[in-house]
Amino acid sequence: MSALLHVEGLSKRFGGFVALDGIELEVQDGERLGLIGPNGSGKSTLVNCICGTLQNETGSVRFAGKALDGLSSHQRTRRGLARSFQLPRPFASLSLAENLRVPILYTVNARGAGALAGAAVDARCRDLLGEVGLAEKADRLPRDLTQIEMRKLELARAMAAEPKLLIADEAMAGLSHAEVDEIVALLIRLNGQGVTVIMIEHIMRAVMEFSQRLAVLVAGRKIADGAPKDVVRDAEVVRAYLGE
Amino acid sequence: MRATPFILVLIAVAAAIFGIARWLDNSYAFFAGYVVVQYIVLGTAWNILGGYTGYVNFGITAFFALGAYSSVVLHKLVPTLPLPIMIVVGGAIAGLVGLGTGYLTLRLRGVFFSIATLALAVVVQTLITNWDFVGGARGAYVLRPRTAPLIGGDYMQYLFLIMLGLGVIVLATARAIERSSLGVGFAAIRDDEAAAEASGVPTLKLKLVATTLSGGFMGMAGAPLPFYVTYLDPASGFSLNYAVNAIAMPLIGGTSSWLGPVIGAVLVGGLQEYLRVTISSAVNVLVAGVLMVVFVIVAPHGIVGLFQRKR
C-alpha cells in the first residue's frame, strides 16, 4: 500500500505560540485513522493546514503523490481532499439539495471526467441525501434541521465532492449515544466504499470502534501513533489526558 | 423559461414601453422613464455583488461617475463618437476599476469591504475634481445633438431607448447568473466563504467576476449621463442620491432575484419622480430613506421575499 497522505515536518505558529511542531503523519490508501488529543492540542490546526485553510510555515503535505504546498483550499478539494467542519457550516440560504449542488458543480464537474449535467446533478444530490437519511428534507433549509441532521448534511456535502480522503472534524460532538453510533456506522460505510477517512474525535468509544490506527496530538506534537489498543495504554498518552 | 425566450420577452417589454412613451408624446415621460430605467440598471449592477455574493458596495458613485466622465472625455476628444461606443468604453473602464478594487479589497470581509469602497468613491471624486480637462470642480458642458440618430425625434428619446437596451442586457445577465453555476457559487460565498472554498468554489476568482461585472454595469449606466444632464460637475455626478437609491431599490424589491431591483426601481424611482413634480424635488430623497427603514423592519427579504414560498 502506498501512502495517500504524507505530512512531513509540518509546523505552524501563531505569533509566538507554536500550534504544531514538526508533525509527521502518514495515512495509507483506504485506511481509517483516528486522531485524538486534548483541547488546544492542534488537531483542527492540522486539519486546516492539510486542507489549505491555513498555510504552514515549514514542512510539506503530499497527497496522492503530489505536493499540495501553496495550493488554496478549493484546489485541494478538487484533488480529492474533503473535510467537514467542527461546527456545521451549511449554506444557510440554500436548500439541502442546493447545498450539495455546490461541491458537485465546483469539484466533480471542475475535474472534467465524470461531469454531471442538468437533471443528473439534482438526482445525485438527492441520492447523497438519501444515503445519510435526509432525502425527505431535500427541499428544506438548513435551519429546519436538528443537530445530528446538520452533521449529516455536513458529511454529505463533503462526500458530494467525491473525495479520496475525508477528514471528519468532530462530527459527533454533542450528539447522543445512539446518534454517535449512527455517524460511526455512516463513516465506516463510506470507508467501505473506498474512501480513506481521518476521524478527529473526543468520544473515545467512537474512536475505538472506528479506528484501525490511532494518532495522538498533545501541545502541537504527535506523541503516539499505532494500534488503538496499544496507544490508549501508552504511558505518555495516559499522562497527557489524566495528568501525573 | 429558458434564456432566449426570456431575452425576447425583455426586448418585447422594452419595445412596448418605448412605444407607449412615443404614443404619449410627452417629453417628460422620456425624462422620467430614463431615470427609472437607469436605476434598474444601477440597482441590478449593485445587486450582482451586494445581493448575490453579499459584499455591500458603498462606492457606487465611483463606478457610475467613471462611466459618465469617460463619456465627457470621449466627447471632448471625438465629438462625433456614437453613444453606444462611449457606453462600452465607460463600462470597460469602470469594470477594470472594479477588478482592481476587488483584487485589493476582497480580502476584507463585511463592513471593512464596505468602508474601503466608500473610500474609493472619495478618491475618484477627488481625482476628477482636480482634473482640469474634464472641467474640474467647475464641471463640464456636453451639448447633446438636437435630433436622435436612427429613430428621429428628440435626442432624449434616443437616450431613453439606449437605457432600455442597457436594461435588457443587464437583466438578461443577472438572470443568467442566477441560473448558472456562477449563481450557486455566489450564493455559497454569501452564506459561508470558508465552507464554499472547502466545497471547491474558487472564491477569489468568483468575487473578482462579481466586482468586474457590477462595476462595469454601473459605469455603463453612468455613460449616457452627461448627455442627459448636459452639464456635469463632480457634485452631481458623485451625488449621494445615486448610491442611496442603488442600494435601497434592491433592498426594497428583494436582493435574491433579478426581479427585486426592477420592482424596487419602478416603485421607488416612480414615486420619486411623481413627488418631484407634485410636491417638491427635495422630497424624493426622503422616499428612499423612509421606504428602506420600513422594509428592513416589515419585509427584510424585500417585496420578492414576501411572495416567495415559505420553506
How is this structure best described in words?
The complex is a heterodimer of chains A (244) and B (311). Chain A is of the alpha/beta class and 244 residues long. Chain A has a single domain (3-242), classed as Rossmann fold (3-Layer(aba) Sandwich). Chain A has helices spanning 43-51, 73-79, 96-108, 119-131, 147-160, 177-192, 204-210, 228-231, 235-242, and strands spanning 3-14, 17-28, 32-36, 58-63, 66-67, 81-84, 165-169, 196-200, 213-218, 221-226. In chain A, helix 3 crosses helix 4 and helix 3 (96-108) packs parallel to helix 5. Chain B contains 15 helices and two strands. Chain B has 311 residues and is mainly α. Chain B is globular, with a radius of gyration of 19 Å. Chain B has one domain (3-239). The model of chain B has no long low-confidence stretch (mean pLDDT 91). In chain B, helix 4 (83-105) packs antiparallel against helix 9 (203-222), helix 6 crosses helix 7 (181-191) and helix 12 packs across helix 13 (259-278). Chain B has helices at residues 3-24, 27-50, 60-77, 83-105, 110-129, 155-179, 181-191, 193-198, 203-222, 225-229, 234-237, 240-253, 259-278, 283-298, 302-307, and strands spanning 140-141, 231-232. The A-B interface holds A 51, 53, 72-75, 77-78, 82-83, 85, 89-95, 98, 101-103, 105-107, 109-110, 139-141, 144, 157-158, 160-161 and B 181, 184-185, 187-188, 190-192, 194-204, 256, 311.
